[in-house]
Recover the amino acids of this structure.
């Protein structure tokens, strides 16, 4: 899922301060699961904004709404009336959701209420970890299902750097070295040979380095 | 084309090789670099020039030119942290024009460890791919994308290894790839524990890697127990044992600790020199270039 974090209330207040009527719009998919932008967080942020505005003497009316997916036009439709009757939208979706709303309502200010962080998983209660960099050319089959592009801070594709120590990463001792995990896993599944071949430089044009990406599926075009 | 540096010749003739590291600082006029070069003296086969190693510094390309001007031969260090393959190759062509004949290919410390945690990290290529790229430039006269290089490009390619990285199997696998990619010499991280280094070196020899590349063992003159602790706390590639820290502490005051650090360094070199198949010593000065002539004299290097 896409994992995000809420911006600070004081920053949000600064972002929306020129508006009198604000819609706080939640998203019911990824950011609900990672406890950043679902119905519950919409309610918390709306209340916090009301209180903070009151304390600062700012006039601010806040409406709350959560739709299933802000990145999907079918669901955006359900927010149409609420968007129309407010001066601006504070979207608690990921960056894709915020932009989808903004594109659909060109004359309405739409702001991001979250910092979109990464594609990851819930590791354990309260801890989310990045697992995929969406690099556009998956190499997981070569590395025992552990991604060196995402989980090695140097994207090393041919083995660990010299800073790998006792399973830890040189960047942060609280982080596991991806290469130690890759080694153990490949050994476990009898595929250590996969590491021996020198992997050529990665084609980053399929990642964000090539600019924003689009996928065209002719079989789905009408 | 075959590399024609003095270092390449020494590797070929089987001479025992001694190199040391020059660490440029953040300076605009080169005076400190020139002073450090003077301090390093004339007893070295080649001088490594580090690339923004522990912090931002004058470029290793410019400092390598200072080495040439001083009459010595540089080993131009480049890390893949800050440059993509376009910048690296362009700098390498420039290095060739400026008379640089040896390169050390590294991935480099992550930017978190260099005082710029907020900068973008490049890592377009890793150290092994870097070695392969420069080897191709030298042997085929071609850039990574197949384009022909005008004029002759020849660079002796070196790499680094950390003998203390575990497990040994993974360590040797990685080293083997670097050598297969074209590394003609390997300079290791600092050795403070000769026994563990010996285990690694035995594995290197039993894989036949020492026959394909020249292995130079790294040494580092410690100044004090505080420095030793600070290095191992900050950088995961410094393996300094408690015994060494204690030995430095017991030496007493600042000057005595420094002397003891030098003693330790010299003891380590004398043990390393006895290892059959080891091709030389690389003195990681850590910016203490003035200590290098003392180390050379005391070790008979």
């Amino acid at each position: 899922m896409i994992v995000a974090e809420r911006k600070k209330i004081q920053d949000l207040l600064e972002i929306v301060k020129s508006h009198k009527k604000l819609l706080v719009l939640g998203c019911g998919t990824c950011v609900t699961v990672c406890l950043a932008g679902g119905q519950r967080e919409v309610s918390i942020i709306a209340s916090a904004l009301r209180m903070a505005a009151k304390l600062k003497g700012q006039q601010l009316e806040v409406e709350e709404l959560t739709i299933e997916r802000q990145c999907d036009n079918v669901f955006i439709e359900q927010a149409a009336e609420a968007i129309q009757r407010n001066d601006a939208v504070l979207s608690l979706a990921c960056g894709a959701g915020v932009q989808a709303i903004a594109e659909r309502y060109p004359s309405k200010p739409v702001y991001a209420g979250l910092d979109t962080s990464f594609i990851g998983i819930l590791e354990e209660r309260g801890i989310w970890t990045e697992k995929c960099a969406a690099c556009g050319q998956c190499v997981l089959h070569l590395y025992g299902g552990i991604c060196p592009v995402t989980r090695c801070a140097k994207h090393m594709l041919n083995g660990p750097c010299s800073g790998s120590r006792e399973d830890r990463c040189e960047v942060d001792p609280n982080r596991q070295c991806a290469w130690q995990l890759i080694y153990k896993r490949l050994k476990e599944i009898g595929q250590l040979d996969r590491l021996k071949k020198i992997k050529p430089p990665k084609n980053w044009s399929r990642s964000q380095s090539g600019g924003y990406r689009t996928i065209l599926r002719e079989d789905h075009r009408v | 084309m075959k590399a024609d540096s003095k270092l390449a010749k020494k590797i070929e003739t089987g001479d025992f090789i001694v190199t040391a590291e020059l660490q440029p600082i953040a300076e605009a006029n080169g005076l400190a670099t020139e002073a450090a070069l003077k301090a390093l003296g004339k007893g070295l086969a080649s001088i490594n020039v580090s690339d923004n190693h522990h912090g931002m510094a004058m470029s290793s390309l410019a400092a390598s030119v200072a080495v040439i001007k001083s009459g010595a031969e540089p080993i131009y260090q480049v890390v893949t942290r800050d440059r993509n393959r376009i910048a690296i190759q362009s700098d390498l062509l420039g290095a060739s024009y400026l008379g640089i004949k040896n390169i050390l290919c590294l991935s480099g410390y992550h930017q978190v460890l260099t005082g710029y945690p907020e900068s973008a990290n490049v890592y377009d290529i890793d150290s092994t791919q870097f070695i392969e790229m420069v080897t191709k430039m030298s042997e085929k006269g071609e850039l990574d994308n197949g384009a022909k290089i005008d004029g002759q490009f020849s660079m002796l390619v070196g790499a680094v290894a950390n003998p203390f990285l575990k497990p040994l199997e993974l360590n040797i696998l990685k080293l083997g790839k670097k050598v297969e990619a074209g590394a003609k010499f390997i300079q290791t991280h600092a050795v403070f524990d000769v026994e563990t280094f010996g285990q690694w070196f035995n594995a290197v020899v039993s894989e036949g890697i020492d026959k394909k590349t020249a292995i130079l063992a790294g040494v580092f003159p410690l100044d004090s127990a505080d420095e030793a602790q600070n290095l191992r706390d900050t950088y995961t590639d410094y393996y300094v044992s408690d015994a060494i820290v204690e030995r430095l502490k017991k030496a007493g005051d600042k000057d005595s600790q420094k002397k003891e650090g030098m003693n330790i360094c010299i003891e380590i070199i004398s043990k390393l020199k006895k290892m059959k198949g080891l091709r030389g010593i690389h003195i990681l000065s850590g910016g203490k270039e003035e200590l290098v002539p003392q180390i050379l004299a005391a070790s008979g290097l």
Observations:
- The interface with chain A takes residues 80-81, 85, 107, 109-110, 112-113, 121, 123-129, 132-133, 144, 160-162, 165-167, 169-170, 173-174, 176-177, 180-181, 189, 235-237 of chain B (CB under 8 Å).
- Strands of chain B lie at 17-22, 46-49, 74-79, 102-106, 156-161, 185-190, 214-219, 280-283.
- The two ends of chain B are 31 Å apart (CA to CA).
